[in-house]
Amino acid sequence: MEGWLGSSLTVFVGVTGILTGFAAFMTGQAVAGTWKPYWQVVIYCALLGAAARFLGFALFQGVLWSLTGYLSSAAVLLLIGTASFRLTRARKMVCQYPWVYERSGLFTWRERHPDGSGGELTRT
Description:
The protein is mainly α. The chain has one domain (2-88). The chain has four helices and three strands; from the N terminus they run ααααβββ. The protein has helices spanning 2-5, 9-33, 39-60, 67-96; strands at 101-103, 109-111, 121-122. The protein has a three-stranded antiparallel sheet with strand order 1-2-3. It is elongated. The chain starts with a helix and ends with a strand. 30% of the residues are buried.
């Protein structure tokens, strides 16, 4: 497992899951909160993946140039950033336009119909 992650599991969970995971969560919220496109979350989480690798290397003597370690860190951070982006975007759409949209799930919204019949699921 250490060869795959480039560090021990506890270091991976601590640095990637908690420390930079919080940064990825806040990044997703910030991008969605300012109505920026989703691709910016992807770029920022890729950069956070590199930062997580460096922190693991500098603080815990992990392997800096581990491709699998970077990809696993970036994937976890992208998952966290995407979830945060979708949560925030769904909340903002419903709060900003309550006469047009209603919440249909944790990550989704749909058009509000005046007859109360509900609508098709809207994914953007």
